[in-house]
Amino acid sequence: xxxxxxxxxxxxxxxxxxxxxxxxLYLSQPYLSQYLxxxxxxxxxxxxxxxxxxxRLTPAGELFHAYLERQSYLDRQLVSDLRDxxxxxxxxxxxxxxxxxxxxxxxxxxxxxxEQYPDVQVVLHEASVPELGELAEANVIDFCVMQPPSDLTExxxxxxxxxxxxxxxxxxxxxxxxxxxxxxxxxxxxDLRLLEHVRIMMLPPDWRLSKLLxxxxxxHSMEPQNILVTTNTTTAINLAAERMGFAxxxxxxxxxxxxxxxxxxxxxxxxxxTCPLAVVYKKNGFLSPAARAFIDRIKAFYxxxxxxxx
Length: 310
Description:
Helices cover 41% and strands 21% of the residues. The chain is an alpha/beta fold. The strands form two sheets. Strands 3, 4, 5, 6, 7, 8, 9, 10, 11 and 12 form a ten-stranded mixed sheet that branches. A two-stranded antiparallel ribbon has the order 1-2.
């Protein structure tokens, strides 16, 4: 829909006052009040609760405000894209991934994507999961691949899958010698309390996967005594392959390890413990056709790991 002078309404919301908004816009207060009344009349809803000072958005006002913000962003994006096209610049797609996920995901997706969009330049921003959310909030990246964020004030997401969490350890580890469980045919680990006094490689405790695992430990009355903290999943799986202990990893993160033949892989609990994965981007942001195509390829790639409990 066409909204005349949308910056008037956006300024009122930002200032939370018609009079202060009028000063900022160099308009008279009666004129701005009349503008707001006509806008509400044309929409058939009340946008601002005038019984409060400072002004508050009504539910309809929150929806309309989100629409205008998105429209403003799209307008700026269109101008930028048209300028790049006129200047014959290659479109750039900024994607955020953790280092280990980029290592397992990009070799399968990038070649196919480049066949479809040969003129799009892809820039990978590899960072820890907490940093990825910050990059998305700051509009540094178009989207990132991570667990759904807990704070959705500035971000939104599309679910990709729920993948199983695997416990991995060297096949010839004393705890595993009589247990036969492979990546292709994983079985539930018999008792997590067996791991209480052996080394476990864990991601930082404030990361979502670790929080999920610590909750599981608590349910099983298990308190690990020997934890090695790492921010890199590749480090964890490589140490496990060298008989340095055990690691808990997302299923897709195990698939590309060169040490798969050395490792036993177990699910955790029954039904298996799973962790969500999502594509995360700025709320009210703009996803180009190239970004949407890349996201679709991510979903197709991960569909084989998506665990749907019966």
